[in-house]
């Protein structure tokens, strides 16, 4: 998954992936059928791992929506060095002024 996030889907080849896994292209194709199939399998495994920390945010209705969103932003920023967060979430932080001011250099 990291290669897709760093290089992009189009620039990542099955040969690159096979080399990274220490496998052959034919092994990857036999298991996943296509590059898209491999991405889908990787996402099915990665998304729950990426979302798990967000489940720790207190989302009770007694809290203001602003406080909940700020907590989500702080969690995202704490993981901003993770390439998947940089590609998916960090650009959105620029649209949250309080989080941007308190967490970005």
From TrEMBL:
Keywords: DNA-binding, Transcription, Transcription regulation. Gene3D superfamilies: Tetracycline Repressor, domain 2. Signal peptide: none annotated. The keyword Transcription regulation applies. Residues 1-50 form the HTH tetR-type domain. It comes from the Bacteria. Residues 13-32 bind DNA. Pfam families: TetR_N. GO terms for molecular function: DNA-binding transcription factor activity; transcription cis-regulatory region binding. This is Transcriptional regulator, TetR family.
